[in-house]
Amino acid sequence: MRTNPDQGAQFAQMLVVDEEPLAEIGQIVDVFMEKNMVQQCTAFLLEALKNNRPSEGPLQTRLLEMNLMAAPQVADAIMGNHMFTYYDKAHIAQLCEKAGLLQRALEHYTDLYDIKRAVVHTNLLKTDWLVTSLDLWAWTTAWSASRACCRST
Questions:
Q1: Per-residue pLDDT tens over the stretch 84-128
Q2: Which of 29, 88, 101, 121 has a 20 to 30 A CA-CA distance from 94?
């Protein structure tokens, strides 16, 4: 890992390619993260988690979490590809908000308080996205979010 990170990532991929992996994915992630190899860890996890299994939810969360802290634009791209569905959406929403990805945070929030807190930053949101989202939210949520937007301007 230390002398050639990319070859280390390829080797890690070979360890988990079969139905019965030779090593636990979480342990491999730990090794990558001990060396602060976020890019290689991301590449490894994207391949290892490509089947989007419910049992891999914690690893999906960890992938998004590490990228939201180190490279938010990468996390944004991963979420934009809709590859994963079993991660902790509430936790990821909070991290998205902290990373300045308010649109992604709002896509994940379900609690009205969280939505109202984030939606008031209308200057950071695309207007067409906000209008579409208001249509998708439940009527009471959309109404409360609209009122919060109006009060903030």
A1: 999 999 999 999 999 999 888 988 888 877 777 777 666 666 667
A2: 29
Global confidence as pTM: 0.75
In a domain, 81, yes or no: no
pLDDT single digits (tens) 15-59: 566 566 666 888 888 988 998 989 999 999 999 999 999 999 999
Neighbours of 70 (CB within 10 A): 15
Q: In sequence order, which residues have a C-beta less than 8 Å from that of residue 94 and are 6 or more positions away?
A: 105
Domain that holds residue 124: 111-153
Strand segments, DSSP code E, in the chain are: none
DSSP state of 125: S
Residues 6+ apart with CB under 8 A from 76: 101, 104
Residue 62 placed within a domain: no
Residue with tokens 């934009």: 80
119 within a domain of the structure (yes/no): yes
What separation, in Å, do the N-terminal and C-terminal C-alpha atoms of the chain show?
Answer: 51
Residue 42 lies in a domain: no
DSSP conformation class of 4: -
Q: What is the C-alpha separation between 144 and 128, in angstroms, rounded? A: 18
- Residues 6 or more apart whose Cβ sits within 8 Å of residue 80: none
